[in-house]
Amino acid sequence: MIKILTVYGDMLLVALGRTILLALLGLFFACIIGLFFGILGVLKNRVCNIISQIFVDLIRGVPMIVLAFFVYFGIPYYFNTIIGGFNVTLSALQAGTICLALNCGAYMAEIIRAGILSVDIGQMEAARSLGLSYGMAMRKVVLPQAIRTMIPTFINQFVITLKDTSILSVIGFPELVNTAKNVQANTFMAFQTWAIVGVMYLIVITILSRSAKVLERRLNVGR
User: What is the DSSP letter of 79?
Assistant: First the structure.
C-alpha cells in the first residue's frame, strides 16, 4: 500500500480532482435542467406537466451505464451516419457531463418540484395580488423559500452524483475508478489499490454528508 501511495499517489489525487470536477459540471447543468422541468411540473398546464413527467420517467427508467453508452456512441453515430453530413465527436468529459446532467437533472426536477410545492400556496397568491406576474412571483417569492429547504438535498444529490462518476469509467474518462484500474494492472495489488480508492471516496463523501447535516441544522434554527 505504501508503494502505491508513493508511486501512484499523485496520479490518484489528480484522478480524484477530475472526478470532483465532473460531478460539479454535471450538477451545475443538472440544476438548470431540473429547474426547467421542475417548474414545468408545477405549472397549471396539463401539457407542461406531462412533458415534465415524461422526461423524469424516461431518464430515471434508463440505467446510467446505458445512458452513458447512448450519449458517447449513439449520438455521434446518429448525426454522422444516420443523418449524415455531420462530424460530431464527443470527448469522454463532454459525454460524461451530458450523461450526469441528464441523469441528475431528472432527480433534481423532482426535488425542485417538491420544494416549490412545499411553499404555502398563499405566498404565490399574495405575490400575485400585489401585481407581480407569475414568473416574477416565482422568482422573487416562491423559489427563494423553496431553495432554502432544498439546499441539504442538493448536497445529498451531489454525493450521489459523485459516486455515479465511477460508472463513466466505461467510456474511458480518467476519473478515479478508471485510474485505479490502471494502477491495479501495473502493480497487481488489487486489494490495496481498491482499499485506497475506497478511503478516498469515503473521505470526500463523509465531508459532504457532514456539511449537509450541519447546513440543515443551521437552516432549521434560522426558521
Answer: I
Global pTM reads 0.88
pLDDT tens by residue, 126-147: 888 888 888 888 888 888 888 8
pLDDT digits (tens, 9 = 90+) for 18-62: 999 999 999 999 999 999 999 999 988 999 999 999 999 999 999
In whole angstroms, what is the distance from residue 13 CA to residue 190 CA? 18
Record the cell numbers describing residue 184, joined without a space: 491495479
Cβ(179)–Cβ(12) below 8 Å = yes
CB atoms within 10 A of CB 31: 19
Helices 2-42 and 143-164: crossing angle, nearest 10°?
Answer: 140
Q: Is the distance from CB of 116 to CB of 38 less than 8 angstroms?
A: yes
- Ramachandran angles phi, psi of 14, nearest 5°: -65, -40
Cell numbers placing 222: 434560522
For residue 40, give its domain range: 2-221
* CATH at residue 78: 1.10.3720.10
- What's the CA gap between 154 and 149, in Å, rounded? 10
The C-alpha atoms of residue 29 and residue 87 are separated, in whole angstroms, by 24
Give kind and range of the element (H or E) at residue 41. helix 2-42
Measured CA to CA, the distance from residue 217 to residue 223 in angstroms comes to 10
The torsion angle over the Cα atoms of residues 22, 59, 40 and 100, rounded to 10 degrees, is 0
Q: Count up the domains in the chain and report the number.
A: 1
Nearest to 60 by CA among 105, 96, 15: 105
